[in-house]
Every structure is written in C-alpha cells, then in structure tokens.
C-alpha cells in the first residue's frame, strides 16, 4: 500500500509499505478515506523526536471504512464508516474507566516495560514513533486500529467525511481544553493560537456559556475564521498590545481562563524564539486573572526554563496540561456535527491527494496560502 | 502501609488479604540491588491493576506470564488504596533458579526488565483482555518471510 513516511528532517515521501495486519483480537483494519495534518506532527517532521525512524508512517487523525475485523470486536462490522480517535485506549484500565483515555495504561505497546521512569506510559497514538509505543499513522491506504471498540466511532450518515474528520482530534481537543479550564457561564476566555484546535476551543468556550472569547494570533485568515465560524473576537498581536487589550476587555481583572494552543513549532512564529522560549505561555500566565486557570495544549513542549513560576504562586493560578484529548466526547461532537451545530469542514483549507502529502506538509508547516489544515485523500 | 501478601506460584485466598511480613532477601553477589547497592536485594517492580486481587490472581495462582518465572522471582500482592484495584509487585529472587532461557535476562544489565514486562502483560491481560502487540516493522516482516 502507499503511505506518507517520514524520511529525514523536513522531508516526507509517499512510499510503498507492507499492508497492515490484524495483530490483536480487538483490532480492525480501516481503509482510509480522509486524513489530516496536525500540529503534533510538526516536531516529528522537523526531526525533533530521536525515536522516529525513517519509514515511520505519519498521520494522527483519520477517518475511513472498516474492511477487516478481529474476532473480539463487538461494535464494528466491515463496511462501517468510522472516525478514529487520536488516543489509542484499552477502555479497561483505571484511567480509561475515569474517561481519561489519553492517560491509558495499556495502549503504548511495550513501552512502559522498558522505561520504569515513565511510571506507566501515556496513551499510544497513531503516526507516532513505534519505539515510543506509537502505531503507524493514517496518511496511508490502510491502517490497523487497536482496541477498535473503544477507539473507533461510527459516523452518522448526516455527517460527511470532511466534517467528521475533525472529530478524531481537533474538536475533542478543543472541547477538552474548555472542560479542563472549567469554563463557566459569564467567563472571559482567551485562546492563544487560531489553528484548528484554537478555533474549536473558542467554539467550545462559547458553547459552555463564556461571555467573551478572544483569540490571539497574527494570521488574519485564521482570525477571521475564528470570528466568522465560531463567534470569537480576534486579537492580532502584531497590531495590538495583547496584555493591555485583555485587561481592558475583562474589566481590569484578566481572563478567567487562558488556553495556549499554539503548538510546538508555532511558538517561534508566534513571537517566541523557539519551543524553549514560549512567549505565548508566558503572556497567558501574566494575563490570567488571580486564581484563574491556564491550560497548555499540545505535545513536545519539552523543557521550559525562565518560566514565571512566581506569577503562578503569587496569583494562585491553576496550570493544567493536555497532550491528546480523551475519547468520551467524540460521540457527542459527532451528534452536534449531525445537527449542524458544529461545522468544521472549512478547516480543511487544502484538500490534496495522498501523493501530494509532501506539498501539503510544507503548506501546513509554513502556514502558507492560508493553510489551516491539509487534508489528504488516498 | 497497606496489607501485604508475599506469594509463591500458588497461594491461598487467605494470603491475598492477610497481613504478611516483608522479609529482606539477601542480595546475590555480583548483582546490583536497589539503589545501586550490590548487597541490597533487587528493588520491587510494581503495577497497579484496576481489578480486585481475586481477579488478578484467580484461585490464588500466579497469572501468566508471571507463572513462568516461578522459582526466579518473588511476588507481593495487596489491595490498592482508594479502590484502585490491586498492587502487584515482583522482583528477582536472590538465589532463585531461573527457568531455562531467562537466566540472561535475570542477571543482565537490567534484570528488572523481564519482571516489568511480565507485570505489564499481567495488567494488560486482566484489564484489556489481551497483550497489545506493536506493529511489525518492515525488518520483522522480512525475518518472518525468510
């Protein structure tokens, strides 16, 4: 089959690789209909993960049709159209039973046994290095999906592929950010980053009753989308003093909840110099009201020094993090998509055949041509 | 400290809940024990399994693949606090007799590796019903097909 493989830093290529196979009784094989780039791919693309190997298949978010079913699978049959959650999760460990699928104990194959310092691994993920407990990704003709009854969700007939694709990760990540931030009716919420996850965080905050949601970015087309589709107020940090603006708009208090959704590689373009100098995070910590909540999304944050810890303690802030979303919200979000309450297809700004994957990743990495997400069709 | 049980390959149900005394096991010469002290016993490797002890050790017997390590490791079982299931611990047994094929693992650079893997597989079998297998690499496939 064809798959989009990582080759070297800033180099990906479509290659012929062996078809996936059922490896466990709870697996299914999915024929991919759509897959999308996501911010978590960018550190991999840049070669920042030493566990990534040439030939590893990228693609954390995808949707497709079930074509083969393991003997222990109960909820899926061949022919089902499913969207696959970005967190691989067993459904039976303590974390899964609390709804914390992104912390699943059992879904990063053989990782924890090799590394006791991880104190139990976080959940496995698609398109992540095999040596880090990951699984081959969805930028391919076919994908193996472990624990399919937990990880794959049937797509309602009323929801087309381009919309449902974002129920894999971006929409649950946004919903989860608002939930982790405990956004309440009347809150002022500020979101740094107007990519897909940032925009969907803004939508979720609005749905949870926030009185005001402000999105900070410098890409005008993204800010316009956040405003037009999700009811957020745009703040272009090149043209305004963000801290002063947020203070003014929140009655001098500061936002109740600040969400940092800028991703790793965006940090440099966002005003910071690199992932080690996360100016967006620092700005969020300084802006947040006393006793407010700062939520940091995304993987590969790495190490951060010169962090304003004194502000966290002085102002009694709560700092929370999330790498991948949990799976429990996916059916609810698909239901909202079916009712046209949540529209996400506009996030697929570039629809390309899988063969154009390298071009799609270049567009996505560089935010070129107004790219929010590049979506591939095998 | 919760209630402890130290177990052989088979142990009665009373042992799962009864208090037991933790014994210090003399370290084997040449093996690095806990915290790098060559004279100390190996450190316990522990997993928490989100099921009650009777499901983790049905009929009081060690579950696979721990059972295969019988004679080479010692096992400790106790209910996890806060209704979080069972804490299952194991460590290489000083002076134990490793089954054939396991000796190298148990005296190698990281003797805890085989124990951790066994514990993790027990946890996966009990909680998820199967041991999750990684994708096969292209190299694995070439080996399989000669």
Write structural notes for this entry.
The complex is a heterodimer of chains A (378) and B (146). Chain A is an alpha/beta fold and 378 residues long. Chain A has 2 domains: 221 residues, Quinone Oxidoreductase, Chain A, domain 1, CATH 3.90.180.10; 153 residues, Rossmann fold (3-Layer(aba) Sandwich). Chain A is built from 13 helices and 17 strands. In chain A, strands 3, 4, 5, 8, 9, 16 and 17 form a 7-stranded mixed sheet that branches. A 6-stranded parallel sheet of chain A has the order 12-11-10-13-14-15, sandwiched between helices. A two-stranded antiparallel ribbon of chain A has the order 1-2. In chain A, α13 links the parallel β16 and β17. In chain A, α5 crosses α6 and α6 packs parallel to α7. The longest helix of chain A is centred in the middle third of the chain and has 12 residues. With 146 residues, chain B is of the alpha+beta class. Helices cover 26% and strands 15% of the residues of chain B. Chain B is built from 5 helices and 4 strands, in the order βαβαββααα. The chains are: A alpha/beta (378), B alpha+beta (146). Chains A and B meet through loops of A and β2 and α4 of B.
Q: How would you summarize the topology of this molecule?
A:
The complex is a heterodimer of chains A (378) and B (146).
Chain A: E1 2-8, E2 11-16, E3 28-36, H1 41-45, E4 61-69, E5 81-84, E6 87-88, H2 94-97, E7 124-125, E8 142-145, H3 148-151, E9 152-154, H4 161-164, H5 170-180, E10 188-192, H6 196-207, E11 212-217, H7 220-230, E12 233-236, H8 242-249, E13 257-260, H9 266-269, H10 279-287, E14 293-297, H11 309-314, E15 318-322, H12 330-338, E16 350-353, H13 357-366, E17 374-377
Parallel strand pairs in A: 10-11, 10-13, 11-12, 13-14, 14-15, 16-17
Antiparallel strand pairs in A: 1-2, 3-4, 3-8, 3-17, 4-5, 5-9, 6-7
Helix pairs in contact in A: 5-6, 6-7
Chain B: E1 5-7, H1 13-17, E2 45-49, H2 53-56, E3 73-79, E4 86-92, H3 103-107, H4 112-128, H5 138-144
Antiparallel strand pairs in B: 1-3, 2-4, 3-4
